[in-house]
Design brief:
Residues 28-305 form the Luciferase-like domain. One of its GO terms (molecular function) is monooxygenase activity. InterPro entries: Bact_Lucif_Oxidored, Luciferase-like_dom, Luciferase-like_sf. The chain has helices at residues 22-41, 62-70, 90-103, 117-121, 127-146, 183-191, 203-219, 241-261, 291-305, 320-339, and strands spanning 3-8, 46-49, 77-80, 83-84, 108-113, 149-153, 158-163, 176-179, 195-198, 229-237, 265-267, 279-281, 286-289, 309-314. Helix 3 (90-103) links the parallel strand 4 and strand 5 (108-113). The protein is α/β, with parallel strands linked by helices. The protein has an 8-stranded parallel barrel, surrounded by 7 helices. It has one domain: Luciferase-like domain (TIM Barrel, Alpha-Beta Barrel), CATH 3.20.20.30.
Length: 341
């Protein structure tokens, strides 16, 4: 079985030149909350929200979205892929994990990330500093989930004898994830027993990343089956292949402007290496077609890399009516195929 998730970007209504009217904003939020509530009945495993800042999305505080959706649902797993750790004090991160695990009734999935360069740079933070801060906070999370009182002495954070409350409902902790784009990042996650998600790259490259994770976990004596691995892809689905291609072309155009802002990313160019410390967006990042065609492509890619989870970025950045139709079509016709794969 392949477990189908939503990876939710929550696109901005309006743009740099135009702020929508408050009533339009209120209606927009309500429609998305209704859509995410409907996703439970459509058979999605859960929703991973993303965290982005300073334009493009309304996902600056995804933990608030988790709390809102938790009050409307009963089964959906809810998480962030991932919380951008360098923005926060580790005590806040740990205590919000505990609080959200209770508010979701034990449905929380914990995901962390370093962040994207162009957003961090707006606050004067380099990727080097962001990685340092992220590594320190991860140490604190590891310690806090294991014991009641935590002390830490590091380059960016220092504190002693903190009780970080509440303790999580899921014990010893909620499932933990991190987003990776390299074999070395995958190895680090494996050593800590944390699940991984990745996308952008070709299935061949992702297989190499997942193989590195599996080998490192095996060496550490940690079980690392398909349930530890998630493949994330941008999906365009429609009643006909031609209609889906039109939606996919629009997604690709929107993605180009995003890629232009991120020094780690570049569009797929045959035989060209990725930028230093970065990665290439492969053509396989885009899964397009009718529900049956989309399901077949997902199954093929998940089998190729050994992933038990699929994170669907449905009609990335599209208007809400288009996104709603895609959820209905994917949930109604593609998910039953994935569930029995």
């Amino acid at each position: 079985m392949i477990k189908p998730w939503l990876f939710e970007f929550f696109p901005e209504l309006g743009d740099e030149a135009r702020d929508p009217a408050p009533a339009d904003m209120a209606g927009y939020f309500t429609r998305y909350l209704d859509l995410w509530t409907r996703d439970e009945a459509l058979g999605f495993e859960g929703i991973f929200f993303s965290e982005h800042h300073f334009g493009g999305s309304f996902s600056a505080s995804p933990n608030l979205l988790i709390s809102a959706v938790a009050m409307r649902t009963q089964r959906l797993r809810l998480g962030v892929m991932g919380v951008v750790l360098p923005y926060y004090h580790p005590a806040r991160v740990v205590e919000e994990i505990g609080l959200l695990d209770h508010l979701t009734g034990g449905r929380l999935e914990v995901g962390t990330a370093v962040g994207v360069p162009q957003e961090l740079a707006r606050l004067g933070m380099t990727m080097e500093e962001a990685r340092e801060r992220s590594d320190e906070i991860v140490e604190v999370i590891d310690a806090a989930l294991a014991k009641r009182v935590v002390s830490h002495q590091g380059k960016h954070f220092s504190f002693a004898n903190l009780r970080l409350l509440p303790r999580t409902l899921q014990q010893p902790s909620p499932p933990r994830w991190t987003a990776v784009v390299s074999a070395e990042s995958a190895r680090r996650a494996a050593r800590r027993g944390i699940k991984i998600s990745t996308g952008f790259n070709s299935t061949a490259t992702i297989r190499t990343i997942f193989d590195a994770y599996r080998a490192e976990a095996d060496a550490a004596g940690i079980a690392a089956g398909p349930d530890c691995l998630a493949l994330r892809r941008r999906v365009a689905v429609a009643a006909t292949a031609g209609e889906a291609q039109g939606y996919a072309a629009a997604v690709s155009e929107r993605l180009k402007s995003f890629v232009a802002q991120d020094s780690r990313l570049k569009q797929s160019v045959p035989d060209a290496p990725p930028p230093a410390g970065g990665f290439t967006i492969s053509d396989e990042e885009f899964i397009t077609g009718t529900p049956a065609e989309v399901a077949d492509q997902i199954i093929e890619q998940c089998r190729a890399v050994g992933a038990g989870h699929f994170l669907a970025v449905l009609h990335w950045g599209a208007p809400i009516d288009e996104v709603t139709a895609a959820h209905e079509l994917f949930g109604g016709k593609a998910i039953p195929i994935l569930r029995t794969a």
